[in-house]
Design a protein that fits this description.
This protein is an alpha/beta fold and 786 residues long. The protein is built from 25 helices and 19 strands. α13 packs across α19 and α14 packs parallel to α18.
């Protein structure tokens, strides 16, 4: 196992620099080291250097890159192009980027490759990043953009259209790999933009695993245990990728130049091998979350307050992920440009991986605007009706609350109970239930937990509820048809019908039977499925603790749906997007969330959401909006407040939301939807452009130059609080929440939707023009509103 510790005199570092010719020189420098922390029980070698290998004297080792001073051209460029951490990592001030409209990359002379484990292979959030960004990248790079990932037959058959490579050099490189006994597939990924994809068959190349493990050890002194399937598969993919790029660069003869962008440690193995073989390429590495950060937060560690106190090597070793951590850190230090997805993750990476990111590349979405301004409001109404139908069936026999005064909240994502904030959410729901009951509110909140867990089947009571609902609907339709026919015939005869005769005895019997069928002697189930670990499940255990069992007296009802949503489900036949549009509020009080796509997806659909200042999305919005809650972005402080205070703050947010009138919610949804321009890849893709340009300048300084950048002002543009109708009443625990149909004094304040929308559109676009002010005009505080 390798030693990448910087403690004491032990230091192994894959050190990169640029030579005069622009080709990266690479050396693995290993000082004398004792057996690695965490190597025990993980297989591989137990020390930082091979048996018989002579360690390099400490005097011959250069200092760590963070402390190294050099007068080389590339390093000088790096110092010019990057600002101090507090500024270069700030996304509130987008003026830290060049004017790309005037300074563009010569894409016709470049080839861009994006390497990720989730190319055509949906595993997590990185799939969304790659898939949604594909269109803007293809629009910019055209036939010179390619994605690389692992081959899975079922994904390839349904998602990829096979074709021949358009580039002769790529075709020759792939043929060379095939001729040496490995399988590789080429085609177009059938998503928006239809990018080219190169997919390597990992299983067909597994016979090389032992040899490639030896190469990795000889090159980097990193050993992989035989039992870690994911790490071994990553090594196979990385070796194939490095092999491909070696063949490609030999074919190209330095023109056009190649940029390779790697996502996460699984793909980063290829980057390490590329740099060790000194291939003439520019490399970018993006970490979407640090390995150790996710593990530590899942273990309920006080992570962000102790970033500088963790013994990184020991923590990784205790969790049996030391070899993975070595691969991740090696990729970070080998790359020409290192990026993260958010400012909070940049701070984390600086402590966990010992390198400050060069660029923060926020995640975006493909935002599709409706031709009619309020079309998304209509979609909300339509999908809300579908959710109401589910609620009617799930709560049959206990449906003593008015669905027109019922709000739908939800939390969704991976089942990481603490990381996703489900623990804080449940406690806040208990307190919200108390407040609504004490204030005798007629508002009911139905909360959905959409988190996949281990189940064996649907809950019988849940299925029965939907069957009873359908039976009642069929009965009502049958009686209605008879009633309508008899009423029609009476009117034809010129008679005023006797209502007691319109419905006969049989009709009353049918209706009484239907009502009898709705009687139930048990409470509506909390979960829609049979859980395999019911007694130890974190959500169900906490539901038992707080006592929210969907009783009649509860104003907060809970529905745990431990499965991804699908339009073919017999219970809740809705896609995830339809479900989001039908809800009123998404709640994501995450403790560890490097970016957070779920609140972003809510935003582009016009649905308010709760996030935290420990999520990349929350930090991004907090920097851009003076009063986020006015725009439907509620940010819980989980970094500088205690857990108790954070829970109370979340409770207050939800309680205030319950006090809104229907008109206030509509206004707030309009404002939320207008923020979607902030998350559009057409704006955020420029961060990737900047990272690629910087990588080219560092890899090929003789061909690519970057002008020096003046440090931007620390204060970025902040959107003012809307001056019109407030989105919610002033926070007060002494006021009784009013239901959605009641109009209050605030509702009579003037509100011009078109005028406010135009102002917000200008505000949103302003920071992406790099804060430029026309000559002769100076921005005044009054320009930003009150």
């Amino acid at each position: 196992m390798c030693c990448l510790s910087n403690e004491g005199s032990f230091y192994t570092h894959i050190y990169t620099c640029s030579t005069a010719g622009g080709v990266s020189a690479h050396s693995v420098l290993t000082s004398s080291c004792s057996p690695c922390v965490g190597a025990k029980g993980q297989g591989g070698h137990s020390s930082g250097f091979k048996e018989g290998q002579q360690p390099i004297p400490a005097a011959a080792l250069p200092s760590a890159p963070r402390e190294r001073e050099s007068n080389k051209a590339t390093v000088r460029l790096s110092q010019k192009a990057t600002m101090p951490l507090t500024r270069s990592l700030s996304m509130g001030s987008l003026s830290g980027l060049p004017l790309w409209d005037q300074e563009e990359l010569p894409v016709e002379d470049l080839l861009l490759f994006e390497v990720a484990w989730e190319v055509t292979n949906k595993v997590g959030g990185i799939y969304t990043v790659i898939q949604t960004k594909a269109k803007v990248t293809v629009d910019e790079w055209g036939e010179n953009f390619f994605m690389i990932g692992p081959y899975y037959e079922h994904n390839f058959k349904t998602q990829v259209e096979q074709c021949d490579p358009p580039n002769a050099a790529i075709k020759a490189a792939l043929e060379s790999i095939k001729n040496n006994g490995c399988q590789v597939h080429f085609g177009r990924w059938l998503i928006e933009g239809t990018p080219y994809v190169i997919l390597f068959d990992i299983g067909a190349a597994a016979w090389n695993l032992d040899r490639w493990k030896g190469d990795l050890w000889n090159t980097c002194s990193i050993g992989l245990p035989y039992h870690d399937r994911e790490a071994n598969d990553s090594l196979i993919l990385g070796s194939l990728v490095a092999w491909f790029f070696k063949e490609l660069t030999d074919q190209l003869q330095d023109k056009p130049n190649v940029i390779a962008h790697f996502h996460e440690w699984q793909a980063g193995v290829g980057l390490v091998l590329i740099r060790s073989r000194k291939l003439p390429m520019a490399t970018v590495f993006t970490t979407h979350a640090t390995l150790l950060g996710r593990y530590l937060c899942a273990g309920n560690a006080d992570f962000y307050n102790n970033l500088d106190k963790f013994d990184i090597d020991r923590e990784a070793g205790e969790r049996q992920i030391y070899h993975r951590y070595c691969l991740e850190r090696a990729a970070v230090h080998c790359s020409h440009v290192f990026t993260t997805v958010s400012q909070i993750t940049a701070v984390e990476a600086d402590h966990m991986l010992h390198r400050q990111p060069d660029v923060v590349t926020p995640n975006g979405l493909n935002v599709k605007k409706f031709s009619a301004m309020h079309e998304f409001q209509n979609l909300h109404s339509m999908n809300k009706l579908k959710i109401q139908e589910f609620v009617r069936g799930h709560f049959y026999g206990h449906l003593d609350f008015n669905l027109e005064k019922t709000l739908f909240f939800f939390i969704a994502g991976r089942y990481e109970f603490s990381n996703k904030g489900a623990d804080v959410f449940l406690e806040a729901l208990s307190r919200l239930n108390y407040l609504l009951r004490v204030h005798k509110s007629d508002v009911t909140v139905v909360v959905f937990f959409i988190m996949p867990a281990k189940t064996n089947n649907f809950n019988v009571e849940s299925l029965k509820g939907q069957a009873v609902r359908k039976q009642l609907w069929d009965t009502a339709q049958s009686v209605k048809e008879k009633f309508g026919k008899r009423l029609y015939e009476a009117l034809l005869r010129g008679e005023i019908p006797d209502m007691n005769k319109i419905l006969d005895r049989d009709d009353f019997t049918i209706m009484k039977r239907a009502i009898y069928a709705t009687q139930r002697h048990t409470l509506p189930p909390v979960t829609t499925h049979n859980m395999l670990d019911d007694s130890t499940d974190p959500i169900l255990s906490n539901v038992r603790r707080i006592g929210l069992f969907n009783s009649r007296s509860d104003r907060v009802k809970i529905v745990f749906h431990p499965e991804f949503l699908s339009s073919t489900s017999p219970l809740l036949p809705m896609d995830y997007e339809e479900f989001i549009r039908g809800c009123h509020l998404g709640v994501f009080p995450s403790y560890y969330e490097p970016w957070g796509y779920t609140p972003g997806e809510c935003t582009v659909m016009g649905i308010p959401s709760v996030t935290t200042n420990l999520s990349g999305f929350g930090c991004f919005m907090e920097e851009h909006i003076s009063d986020p809650s006015a725009y439907g972005i509620y940010i819980v402080d989980r970094r500088f407040r205690s857990a108790e205070d954070s829970c109370n703050q979340l409770t207050q947010f939800m309680f205030s939301f319950c006090q809104q009138s229907r008109r206030q919610r509509i206004i707030q949804r309009n404002r939320t939807e207008r923020l979607s321009d902030l998350l559009d890849w057409r704006y955020l893709a420029r961060f990737y452009i900047h990272a690629r340009h910087l990588a080219l300048c560092r890899a090929f300084p003789e061909r690519f130059k970057m002008d020096s950048l003046a440090p931007p002002p620390n204060q970025g543009f902040r959107y003012p609080r809307p001056p019109s109708v407030p989105p919610s009443p002033s926070a007060s625990l002494h006021s009784t929440p009013h239901h959605s149909d009641t109009e209050d004094e605030d509702d009579h304040e003037p509100y011009d939707e078109d005028e406010e929308a135009e102002r917000d559109r200008l505000n949103i676009k302003a920071p992406f023009t790099l804060g430029a002010v026309p000559e002769g005009k100076k921005k005044q505080p009054s320009d930003y509103g009150n």
